[in-house]
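Inputs:
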Amino acid sequence: MRPLLWGLALGGVAWAASTPTLRTPLPFDHGQHAATFDRQDVGCTTCHPVGAAAQVQPDPLETCHGCHLREAETADRRAPRTCTTCHGVRAELQPASHAADWLALHGVEARADARACRDCHEPSACRDCHERRGPVVANPHPPAFSRTHGIEARLDPAGCARCHPVSVCEACHTAGVQPW
Amino acid sequence: MIGWLAVAHAAQPAPALVVRSETAAAVRPDALGRPVLSMAERLTVDAPVYEGWRLAADGGVREPTLDPVRADLWQLQLRYASPRRRVVLGRQHRLDPRGFLQLDGASAELDGGGDWGASAWGGRLWDAQLWRIDDVFVGGAGLVHRPSRGVRLDAGAEVRTQPGGIEPRVFAAASADRVRGDRISAVIETSDEALNARVDGRVVASRRWDLGGGVRWEGLAPNRGPRTPYELLAPSGYAIGEGRAVWRLGRLVVTGAAGPTLTAAAVGAAARTSAGLISGGVGASLFGRAASIGGSSLAGGGVELRPVPTWVLDAACYGLQGLDGDAGLAWEARARGTTRGTGLGVAVDAAVFGNDTLNPGVRAGLALRAGTAPVPGIGGRP
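Outputs:
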């Protein structure tokens, strides 16, 4: 029993200490794309630039994602738009920035370039947390927030204001139910 | 019921059609701690109509609720999207470097195909939690320039008409990213009386360390129509800053962040930390938080478990010092999650909690979901 526990413990430490990596290169079936590329006049050099142009690697946003991205609604409709078609394990696509504390930081990066978010997330992904209301909700607040929110609100009132009008405060506080 | 019939119809072969329905019920305490049965129905439809054009609607009804609204309409829009052009007509959330603009109107983005892009927007502001707000009409235009990969420059101008008069605003933003993860961004927005400004950056200092931080001055009323907690708590503006550090060892990630808040009435500070083993959305983490401003403070922490990516179990306990000088304890344990994939699913949201102003309580809710596209999960790390 003890060797098994030691094995599990050492295995856990090794797993925790290993760094997940992207599986490269991505699979690409030239034959499967030939007819589409002919129809859309996409040549070999679009993805394999030669000469001076070879110094600049093609941007996936302009090549693969031009058809396979969810946003590309006018592109070839037969192109599958699920990430795992090419990327194998979806979790491996998670950018390094999406680590711990990402929830607190994502707003800054989303405002700087919303297009980057739309590479993976539907536009409704913002709404599902920021505007969703109902009894079973994607509540973005931490536990016990109903009691701690007063301090958080005074530290950063503009943070509250991104989602809430002042009537939400007044619904409880001015009815004499809860003091300010 | 209409939502479920729509899902059943959309489940026929039409993969580009997205229909989701959610029927939810929960028992939760009201502000006095009395149990209240709360119910809601939400329907989302996103349908192709013609060559790149889609019609989307997202709304629901709920009863009862803390907000004065019993019905919601988050989206009703006709939109066109291609890799280089995007047009949205109707109710929308428009995101730009300043934040969300909730607009009943029209917006367009044009990517010139090279280094330049342009956008324009106009309409009336709306609020999801209020049906009636003062009329605020907005019209603006902006330019985007990408001089090199990873560098983006934005500039724009906007005019607002509201009961008090016309307010012109201009804004500029710049951001630069390096592939390895370094990033810096800055935004400034000003009217004739006040301004907002923000600088934020992150440096990948080594294989194990990321360092970052930012400072903001919030001097303009938020980007919304109605009065908000901003006008209530810091109407003359405030400054807030934060320094951040992330340390990694394989899948172990330790974070720390702290910074001050300076308002006309008080000085405060907040700090948070976490240590987590998370990979592919599964794992466990510990977190802590401390904050203080103007005579009140909190300190405590908790644990978060993610057994699968769409399930979160978390619990936290905080010691509090209120403005009235009394000390108290607040705690809550929650279990939230949803089944994955399309078709029929369920979502669960349950919690037990207690604090010094409410009796210990229980909240429990269940939602039945159906859709032709995956329903977003429930999540949220503090």
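Remarks. Chain A touches chain B through 88 residues (CB under 8 Å). Residues 2-17 of chain A form the longest helix (16 residues).
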